[in-house]
Amino acid sequence: MPDQRARTHRRCRLPCGEFDRASGCGRRDGRTLAARSANERSLKLSTKLDLVIQGGIVVNADHMQRADVGISEGRVVALGEALGDAKQTIDAAGRLVMPGGVDTHCHIEQVSGNGLLNADTFETATRSAAFGGNTTVVSHAAQHKGNRVAAVVKDYSALAARGAMVDYAFHIIVSDPEVEALEALEALEADIAALATDGHRSLKIFTTYAIRLSDAQILAVFALARKVGGLVCIHAENHDMIQHAVRRNLVAGNVAPKFHAQSHTRLAEAEAVCRMIRFSEFLDQPIMLFHISTREGVEAVREARARGAKVFAETCTHYLLMTADVLDRPGIEGAKFVCSPPQREVADQDALWEGLTRGDLQIVTSDHAPFRFDETGKLNKGKAPAFNEIPNGMPGLEVRLPLLFDAMVSRGRFDACRFVQMTSSRPAQIFGLRDKGRIAVGADGDIAIWNPKRQVRYGDNDLHDNVGYNPYAGRTVTGWPEIVISRGETIVADGQLLAGPGRRIGSSWNLASKGV
């Protein structure tokens, strides 16, 4: 009998190897790591390399090795010693040479469901991402009522092509499927099929907010995704439970930011997570549950994966490092930290870390959702808005990796390989970014060179985005990305930006899982 895990992998058509848990390597072409290593050792260099990174410790998800890295024409072409002459050489002695970060959950130049444009353009967001050691971001192309998703992706692609400084891809937010209208459903199906052919295979849906879908609509989107071999990402909270709690607080006069956490009850996440898992099992459709924040959410994912459900799940930096206490600040200051789901309690943080340790949660993202702390953003409803009038979201692209390196590696929770796995290689595997998240011959030359001992204290407004505040001001981290290289080109060094906007076009590779 053929191996069941391999058969499951082929059926779900994800380019990740996640369901082949014995290997954990995300194989695409049948080659083993050993075979690839043999190819690397036998590589004969016939021309001068564009770039050689010398003397560092190369860190991948499955191993670390002291080696030089040779890059030409934007790709890694050699790993080893004495690689020969190069047009440029970087001395990485005493440094960790790691794959550039892959942040697969951020909101850039996006209009929210309530009609508010967030603070960052692709230029400012990807600039910030690069300073934080990231070389790939996956943002959202957000459909609003009456829009065709094909046109939405085209519009967002134009924005990204003009401004992006690192590689990018999109999740397609489906918010207007109109499943009751046959003609509209057929148009959506045609758009999704065409976009999948171009490599856009990640769909995003909401179970709350103005752009939420009904259960019938969600099942229809799952069915469409299954036809094209796509992955459905989900913001899972029960809308009616939240609204009931919101109304109860407002009637009682509880309007301060701290009541946001009470209104987004943990049971709202637990209910929606469990429901989406059952929908996934009902239609045999793989899903990614975004920003798990509670112990109950982790437990639901663990139980589902144990019984073979095709469920991935992530958490975010702020759930690991903040609690709901951050919302309880003088005046309206807590508005800076309002996000959904909200920060929880210490016991939930412990459960999230355990979930990462056990593999129940696979990745950690930023959920970068930037709004300025002024009338254009957090205070657009006035200087003292009620908690339910505050736009949800915080900046996170630039701080994700340094904060996580400090929490994971510098403090001894995980080794550097696990850090790379959860912040770069596993996101790339799950979302089919085949040349990202690893330093290996043939992979893109996306590299961050880290000083593991450098300490940096965050300031009030020291980020490179357009938000105007740093939610982690006052925190000191140990470990810092000093040089960032995208496709062989140094884009950040010595605290300086060396790249310009409009240099990356992601549509040729983004979220491609063709041929799997």
General description of the model:
- The protein is an alpha/beta fold.
- The protein is built from 14 helices and 19 strands.
- The protein has helices at 4-12, 33-42, 122-131, 149-163, 182-197, 215-228, 239-251, 259-263, 266-283, 295-306, 317-321, 346-358, 400-410, 416-430; strands at 49-54, 57-59, 64-66, 68-72, 75-80, 86-91, 96-99, 101-103, 134-142, 167-173, 202-206, 231-235, 287-289, 311-316, 363-365, 447-457, 476-486, 489-493, 496-497.
- Strands 8-9-10-11-12-13-14-15 form an 8-stranded parallel sheet.
- α9 (266-283) runs parallel beside α10 and α13 (400-410) crosses α14.
- The longest helix is centred in the middle third of the chain and has 18 residues, at 266-283.
- The two termini are 21 Å apart.
- The model is unreliable at 1-44 and 504-516 (pLDDT under 50).
List keywords for this structure.
516 residues; alpha/beta; Urease, subunit C, domain 1; TIM Barrel; 8-stranded parallel beta sheet; 7-stranded mixed beta sheet; 19 strands; disordered C terminus
Q: Which secondary structure elements does this structure contain, and how are they paired or packed?
A:
Blueprint: H1 4-12, H2 33-42, E1 49-54, E2 57-59, E3 64-66, E4 68-72, E5 75-80, E6 86-91, E7 96-99, E8 101-103, H3 122-131, E9 134-142, H4 149-163, E10 167-173, H5 182-197, E11 202-206, H6 215-228, E12 231-235, H7 239-251, H8 259-263, H9 266-283, E13 287-289, H10 295-306, E14 311-316, H11 317-321, H12 346-358, E15 363-365, H13 400-410, H14 416-430, E16 447-457, E17 476-486, E18 489-493, E19 496-497
Parallel strand pairs: 1-6, 2-7, 8-9, 9-10, 10-11, 11-12, 12-13, 13-14, 14-15
Antiparallel strand pairs: 1-4, 2-3, 4-5, 7-16, 16-17, 17-18, 18-19
Helix pairs in contact: 3-4, 5-6, 9-10, 10-12, 13-14
